[in-house]
Every structure is written in C-alpha cells, then in structure tokens.
Write a structure and sequence with these properties.
The chain is α+β, with helices and mostly antiparallel strands and 736 residues long. 24% of the residues lie in helices and 26% in strands.
Length: 736
C-alpha cells in the first residue's frame, strides 16, 4: 500500500477496538512465566551447551599471548573460540568495533574468547583459567580533553547534517537585549535492561538459527550474515519476547555471533548470555555530551538568535549523539546555528539509547529556556508559548502536520496547579523540605519506515498475523491484534499474532518510537488486501463490503467470514510504503512535563513528589499500554536527572560501576504518583492509522523538568547531570 496522500476515513476510524484501553494479550504469558525468552528454549534444544564470554582486560592495545591449555583441560569443556580459530570474520553494518576482538583490542571488555562447556558452571570456571597477556597502548578516554580535536561527523539518514545555519546568528546574538551563554553536561549512561543480551544458536548443515533478544530482526539477519560471511538466506533470527531493550538491542551483539561460532565449534546448540559487567562495557551505551547553548532575545521575550553546539565521543568510525537536533525545530527564531562534533574516544561503543538525541539534548535546552525566562522576567510556560512556531524554523515553507505544544503546556499547567508556583526560588517550605515546581517541553520526531505483514484467514474465522515486528515490553502484540480485529471486523479473541521471526515479512521493528505507527500500518495494509480477496471470492465489490461482527455484508447479503475463507483459507501479504508527505510536512510529537520536588534543607536529599505528562502524539492506539510506556519513560527520565551515570575511569578507559549494584536506577520508592494525559489528536498525514509514537516522548524533557523544579525549590542551578546532593549542599538556603 502506497501512502502518499493524507488518510481519509477508513475502517480504523470505527474505533470499536482501536483506541480502547485494552489489556496486553501477552500479559498472561508474562505473568505466569510461560513466555519464553531467548535463553529459555529448553524444549526445542534440550542438548544445548553453555558459552561464557571472556572480555578484554584492557581498553586499548593488543593481545601479546593467550594460554588456553588449562581452560581446555577443565571439566566439561567442549570448545574455545578465539579470533585465531574462528575463521575470517567481517563487521556488521551496525557495529563500530568487531564483536570478537584479537589480537587488536578496541575497547575494554571487548569479547576475546568464548569457552563452551556442558554446563554454565563449567564454562564459567574454565573461563577463569584463560590466561591473557596484553601490550597496552595509550588511549583517549576523556571527552573534555578531546573536544578540541572533535570533527563534524558525516551526515546520515538518522542524524541529518552535522551543522545548520539560518540567518546571522553571531550578529543577532550580539545585538540581543537579553542573552544567555551556558554549558551543560550529561554523563555516559547504560540501558540497564532486566534481560541480558542472550542468544542460542543452532546449525543444521549450513543453515543457522539464532534465538536472540533483538529489536530489529532484519537488521540482525544482515549483520549476522555479513559477520560470518554467509548468505542472508541461511540465517534465521527468532525473537518473540524481549525483556527490555531501550535501544541497546537494536543491533546484534557479541552474544549472538559468539553463540553461532560456539555452536559451529562444539557441533551442538550453544547458549550465551552476557554477564552484567559485559552488558555495560561490551555493548552500546548513551555517550556523554558537552553542550553549549546561546539564546538572545528582545525584552518582550521573542527569541532573535539561538545556537546549540554539542560534543560527544565514540570509537573510530562511530556516530555522534545528536543532542542539538530538536533545537532545529522546537522554538521560533530567525537566526539559528546548530553544530554536532564527534571526538574519537577509545571507550565502549556509544549508540542509540531511548530517545537518542532528544533525551540528552532537552536535558540542556529546557534548562536554558528556564534560565532565559527568568532573565526576561517571564513565566517559563509563557516564554515557551511566546516562541511557538507552526512551521519548521529552518524551512518556513514546511508546516507541521500537527503541533499542539501550546495546548500541552496549557492543559498541564491547569491540571498541575502551576498558578500556585512561587516564581521566586527557595521560598516554599513544607517542614524541612524546600518545595519547587518545574516544567519542560517534550519533543520527538515522528519517523516513518516501510513495514509489512502477512495475514491468514482460516475456515474457523480466525485471522493470524505474521510479521517480524518485535515486542520489547511495549505492547506490540496487542496493538497489532487490535488493528487486525478492527480492520477485519472481528473480536480481539479471533486474532492470533506471531512476531519476531525473520521467516515473516519485514517490519519497521522496535526503535526510535517508530514501531507502533509503522507496524500497525503494515498490518492494516495486509488486512485491506485480505478484505479485497474476501470480497472477490464472495463476488462483492470491495468498496461496498462491510466487515463487522465476524460477518461480511453487501446490500442484503450477509456471509460469515469463516465461510469466505473456504477449506484452504485465504492469505494476503502487503506493507506500508510512504511517499513524500514527510518531506512536505514536518511530523513530530509534542508534550509537556511537570514535576514537583522536595529538597531536604539540611541534607540536600531530593524527592520527586508529583509528576504529570501531557502528550500530543496522534491517535493513541491503546491508551492503557501507551500510558504504561509514558510512565516508564518518565521514570527513566528521573533516573537520568538524579542518579544514572556510568562512572568512567579515565586512566584505564572503562566504566567502573558495571553492574546493577553500582549503576543506580530508580526503584519504586523513588517514584511518586504519575499522571498522563493524551490530547485528542489524529494526524492523517502520518499514516492510515493517523497515529505517531509516544514511548520516547514520555522521557524527553523529564530530566530538565526535575532540574528546573530543584532550582525553583532551592535557588541552586545545576547544569551537570546527574543532580546529586553534593552539587547542592554548599549552596542551599539557610536552614533556619
């Protein structure tokens, strides 16, 4: 199905099932433990051996020697895979460093060996017997020290151009009556998902099957094939359930490749789960940023000049964190400058983590907007409203398809009681607590990607949907079932959804907030093709056929859908393919985050007391699962604001707190009541579903709202995340 004109009325608009708060259909499996994740294929592969990964003990250099004798002689050992015996290996399109290192070492904990044994305990014990001597090389580990050598990275479809200029920023900023010029930093962060990167691999002749935890099946097939040097047709990836990804499982990692190599060496299936320290250093992470923001405005608050410059680092050939990109679109202003620079660092690979770009970018921009509002003597909400724009500020001829940022801010202000906020910081107390409110805008682009599905109608009137779309805890099973049920006129229990298998048609996959809108659009396209097949078989005109309550009606004739299927059933396959509407219109999602905090006047302890998110993100396909996504994202935003930081050893180039004991994330006691409001919005320019995405929007801006609330409570402005009490203590107002 080609989508190149705005959507008109279609079967989804019936809203009998779509748009209803529907329980997750995979919920019973998750809660009873019958949903089998990548490492749990015990029945299909009862003879699987276990692999244990040995990670490099240096960040930069070479392996001088590797003694495997003791490990090979250990009980239960079946094989040991290293770069020496693995055969010629390529590098996937989505990996910056090789997934099996040696003799050269690119980063700390790069996989250098896999020990395969009969049991996990035997593999782990034998891995401790591998003796490696290294020759260290000097490495570059400090972003601040390397900023001067940072370069403009190459443009790509995800990041766009590394630099944009509109008007005369330098002149307009110098002439502005009110100015701000401030630098903000965000730290390295880990995805810290519950399920580790895990895979089981099995060879049958030259055919490879990997049961893995991966968000993007088609990408994974391509990278496995390229790494191993085998045809893509010989690779099957299966990933029906994923225990969290947050972008960390967008790409194939060492567990999948080493499981395949281990299975080939041991001549039996091999399962590999990365131990937690390797998840922090071996896989990807959100890279640290340094961000400089300059805003110049007239006395009335209208922005005349705005610049956002960002620096991040990655391995040679890596990608930058595009923290400046939302600033190209969010606020008006005739004179503009954004620049992204990338430094070469010998740290573990930096890459996508939930809301890459916007999450760290808004952590800085939305503090700067608050600081500027204070300088102007304006309410922070009014300053944002004053600088709203209904067109792309860099390309004014390009309007937004929908933009309800002002409505998000106004709705949230009324619901949250913003009028009770004291604009003077440090004035409101509740016993020993200093209390403050903060706000931040939320922004995330709406990304479009081709997505396909296959649908089968059987003689029981059941519809089965097959697509390689994944469910990373986001509710994909449910919204896809809702889409098929709505389009085919069936109750939800007459739809079966099969996901996460490369044997199925290629979908958009899960990532970038694009999964829901694109994957359901692909299912809708396939179902519309199935409707045509049903109508044709029954002799109906497709435009006249009405699908409802398991029946097909045309005029006076009514036929059960099951009867139309016949003995052999009907199958249809199609996908959504977009035209150029995203070129003609800027498609984005918007929101507003409100936070109230309490800060202990004596100790600096920070407690989040209330949170509210107001989101405008097109049609909400399932308000229940969408709310779950947003409150989870809000929680992650609190982590980014107050605690999350991969502590970097700048001498040796590794993240010290590489486990869940040392890497702090929010727990139940840290998070108060969270409220979510979805504005009533449909966007016919986005897709036939008239939806967008919401899972990452719920995080964008949260950290800045927390930071702004802390400032309102204490009068202490912190520009370096995370905001820990040591950054407040010596600047708190007097206790008395």
């Amino acid at each position: 199905m080609k989508f190149d004109t705005p959507a008109t009325t279609n079967p989804i608009d019936q809203l009998k099932i779509i748009g209803k708060p529907t329980d997750r259909i995979d919920g019973p499996q998750k809660t009873t433990g019958t949903a089998r994740y990548a490492y749990e294929r015990h029945t299909e592969l009862p003879n699987a051996a276990y692999g244990y990964v040995v990670g490099a003990g240096i960040a930069k250099g070479r392996i001088a020697s590797m003694d495997l004798n003791a490990a090979r002689a250990a009980p239960g050992v079946l094989a040991i895979v290293t770069a020496r015996n693995a055969g010629k290996l390529g590098k996937g399109d989505f990996n910056t460093a090789k997934l099996l290192g040696g003799p050269a070492i690119d980063h700390y904990h790069q996989a250098v060996a896999l020990v395969v044994a009969q049991s996990f305990e035997q593999a782990r014990a034998a891995a401790q017997l591998v003796r490696i001597e290294y020759t260290r090389s000097a490495g570059r580990f400090d972003l601040a020290a390397e900023m001067g050598a940072a370069q403009l990275p190459a443009a790509n479809p995800f990041s766009g151009e590394p630099e944009t200029k509109t008007g005369d920023f330098t002149g307009a900023f110098a002439a502005a009556a009110v100015q701000i010029d401030a630098t903000y930093t965000t730290p390295d962060e880990s995805h810290a998902m519950m399920e580790p990167h895990a895979s089981i691999a099995q060879w049958k002749g030259d055919k490879l099957t990997i049961w893995t935890s991966n968000q993007m099946i088609a990408w994974g097939v391509g990278d496995v094939a390229k790494t191993l040097g085998i045809p893509k047709a010989n690779v099957r990836l299966v990933s029906p359930f994923i225990g969290g990804g947050f972008g960390g499982k967008l790409f194939v990692r060492a567990d999948a490749v080493l499981a395949a190599l281990g299975a080939r060496a041991a001549k039996r299936p091999v399962k590999v789960a990365l131990q937690r320290p390797l998840m922090m250093n071996n896989t990807t992470h959100r890279p640290a940023t340094v961000q400089r923001i300059r805003i110049g405005a007239a006395r009335d608050g209208k922005i005349a000049a705005i610049a956002h410059e960002g620096w991040s680092g990655d391995l040679p050939g890596g990608q930058a964190e595009t923290a400046v990109n939302q600033t190209r679109l969010l606020y008006a202003g005739a004179n503009r400058l954004t620049t992204t620079r990338l430094a070469v660092l010998d740290l573990p690979e930096g890459n996508a983590m939930r809301a890459p770009g916007e999450a760290p970018g808004l952590m800085a921009l939305e503090i700067a907007m608050d600081e500027m509002a204070e300088k102007l003597g304006l309410d922070p909400i009014e300053f944002r409203v004053l600088n709203d724009t209904q067109v792309d500020p860099e390309k004014p001829e390009r309007p937004y398809s929908q933009r309800k940022l002002i409505e998000c801010l106004r709705t949230g202000a009324e619901r949250f009681g913003w009028s009770k906020r004291n604009a003077a910081p440090g004035q409101r107390r509740d016993g020993r607590w200093l209390v403050g409110m903060g706000v931040a805008a939320a922004f995330r682009n709406n990304l479009l990607a081709k997505s396909a599905a296959r649908v089968r109608l059987d003689n029981r009137g059941m519809v089965t949907v097959e697509t390689d779309m994944t469910d990373i805890g986001t509710g994909s099973y449910t919204i896809i079932a809702q889409t098929a049920a709505e389009t085919m006129g069936l109750p939800l229990d007459r739809v079966l959804v099969r996901l996460g298998d490369s044997a199925y048609p290629v979908s958009a996959g899960s990532g970038g907030q694009w999964g829901a809108n694109n994957s359901t659009s692909g299912v809708f396209a396939a179902c519309m093709k199935l409707r045509e097949a049903v109508a044709s078989k029954l002799g109906f005109a497709a435009a006249d056929a009405e699908f409802s309550d398991g029946m097909v009606r045309a005029g006076e004739r009514v036929v059960p859908l099951a009867e139309a299927a016949g003995a052999n059933g009907l199958v249809a396959e199609d996908g959504i393919e977009y035209g150029d509407l995203d070129k003609k219109y800027q498609q984005s999602t918007f929101g507003a985050h409100f936070v109230e905090v309490g800060v202990d006047a004596a100790t600096g302890e920070i407690r989040v007391r209330r949170m509210l998110a107001v989101c405008a993100a097109g049609r909400i396909l399932n308000p229940k699962s969408a709310r779950s996504q947003v409150i989870g994202a809000m929680t992650m935003g609190v982590g980014g604001a107050l605690m999350e930081e991969l502590a970097l050893d700048k001498r040796h180039g590794f993240f010290v707190n590489h486990d869940l004991a040392g890497y702090e994330v929010p727990v139940h006691a840290d998070i108060p009541h969270q409220e979510v409001i979805f504005l009533d919005e449909t966007d016919p320019i986005s897709s036939p579903m008239k939806a967008k995405g919401v899972g990452e929007l719920g995080m964008c801006g949260v950290a800045a709202a927390v930071a702004n609330a802390i400032y309102n409570a204490t009068g202490v402005r912190v520009r370096n995340y995370p905001i820990t009490l040591d950054k407040l203590l010596d600047r708190l107002p007097p206790v008395a």
